[in-house]
Amino acid sequence: MTEYRPLQQLPEPAGYKAGDVLVLVGELFGRGYANGLVDEAKRIGMTVIGTTVGRRDGDGSLRPLNSEELTAAEALLGGTVINIPLEAGFDMESVDGIPSLAEQLKKARPDDFATITFVEGSVEKACAAGTARFRSHLAQLETELLKRIPADANILLAHSMAGGIPRARVFMPLLNRIFKGTGDKYLASETFWNSPLGQLCNTSFNEVTADTFRYLIEGTAAIRERNTAAGTRVSYSAYGYHGTGVLVNNQYRWQSYTPYVQGFAKMRLEDIASEATAKGIQATVYNCPEIQTNSSALFLGVEISLYPLLSAIRLEAGEKISAPLESRCQAMLKEGETVASLLKRADIYLSSPILEQIVDFPTWPQHNTREQAELMLAASAELMEMHSDQKQLVCAELSRIVFSATGRLMLHDSWKPLSPVAWLNHDIISRLLADQRGSGIV
Q: What's the whole-model pTM score?
């Protein structure tokens, strides 16, 4: 089991300079964690090189971006995108004439999730084919990087791949029941997880979220060996999640969103970083706080632990920094509601005995219970209802702070990481805001 090691002190400024390179492995979409890393790399003068997952045509074939898509991707990144499709996963792979898993699930019904079967051996064959494709495209990526990045450049290869829900309509109704269901619509995550569809998700999450980090480390050995031989650094980072330390009843306490079934793959990701570190390769998984983005909208309730960040900023960074932020947040609330009442309601949920009985670091990740799910969803709805406009949310403002702050912490810590797995909790984020290195984030 990974030791809980929160980052306690702000990392020293990294030695990255103009001419050094951040390679973002995983396409940038919208605004999220990876934006903070890209923004910080640009701020200190690094060159940013992006990648793409490619696109699927109507017949299901994977292709590079067309000229219009490439222009849009490079504009969003603010840098060059190497146009080699690095889509991970295997749900669209057809092997030996066997229909792909996505095809096999086209007529599947949600009510049959516990009895669905696949063509014998098709999951294993598809997974092997997906892995081979990804590794082959990684080899092409390494060839391009060797051409574009000089040996005297320090490099940070940032893994930003996550997810892995197979592309089949049958999953969304089931996941909505797991993450948003109450009453008759509630579905226990453990029941789903132990079903054939749940085990398919487990295999896919491992492949996309975790194993791609191993493939990246192994698939860039040539550039790592060339540059380290020239006396420069090649480091690897990845985005993890393994709960977060937040202020509950005025004390920092580790807590976690439940049910986080992707957590099994996130722990595998941590193991891969630890194995690489043991071999002398600088690889670190940074377990980041919960944020609310378009991709996290499925996990209703994940945003509750964001609200205490306001209290942490007040405690660690002081009134001068916290007051303007709280004022902006107050303006988002309905008349009669206050930031204080918002924080009190979040604290009631996070300190609930029901949650304390379930959330436990040594046995993480936990599955949901009906009682816990209904408590969480009610708290989430109540907190959302305090806002005057559902499109202008306090947690969106706090999410922006989180991904900007974690980007700075990750980039600088990656220069000389203390451990292969680190937690970026609310306290270290708030201390960054109080430091001159955190200027401009709030």
A: 0.97
